[in-house]
Amino acid sequence: MRRVLAYLLRIGGSIAIAAAVGAQLQRSIKNEGSGQGEVEFVIQNFFSFFTIESNVLAAIVLFVGIFTLSSRSEPRGWSMIRATVATYMATTGVVYNLLLRGIELPQGTTVPWSNEILHVITPAILLLDWLIAPGRRPLHAKALWGIVAFPVLWAGYTLARGVMVLDPRTTKPWYPYPFLDPNTSANGYLSVGFYVALIAMVIGVVGAGILWLSRVRRRPS
Predict the structure, then answer these.
(1) Quick check: 114 and 24 in contact, CB under 8 A?
(2) What are phi and psi of 201, to 5 degrees?
(3) What's this model's pTM, rounded to 2 decimal places?
(4) In this structure, what DSSP letter does residue 74 have?
(5) pLDDT for 163-220, tens place per residue?
(6) Do 202 and 95 form a contact (C-beta atoms < 8 A)?
(7) Which of 48, 61, 68, 47 is nearest to 89 (CA)?
(8) Where are the domains of the chain?
């Protein structure tokens, strides 16, 4: 039964994510094309959002996972990848609903149904898939270092890129999320540092929980 539910989650989830990402990208390009015309700039920035990157990874993991369900036990490396993406998506859901819900992000007018899929439904799908899909391998707590590596690098890349990349429409530095912009944050880089530390803590806590779940014994599917 778990295997059937996992198939449905992975097939439906990968299709839904692809549709949601495509719809939001199309809306952003359309809005910009009828506005300032900086379409190339918008496309480049679109894939700098952690939400978009995490959802693209989630779609890939769900799609590939369709073909791994036939085996009784998946490779440990694949379980690590699944755990990593599940952590990122769960963190995306938490951060969005705590800090960003109701805020219009700079990728253009948000597509409501796409927004809900990317920030609410996909995190739920990845977490549920991690809980019920058969074949996952137990992962040691030290794997948490691998999980937090990408978000830390992403934060450093985002802050460095923000200084170097100016929005041609406003001539101001571009940041994907308001809380990462030291020019608009209440206490500049101090506020940004606080939010980065908070998100890192959330990723660490969520990742630790995901890894712990991998070691919980389940009855055979």
Answers:
(1) yes
(2) -65, -40
(3) 0.87
(4) -
(5) 888 877 778 888 888 888 898 878 889 999 998 888 888 899 999 999 999 988 765 5
(6) yes
(7) 61
(8) 2-214
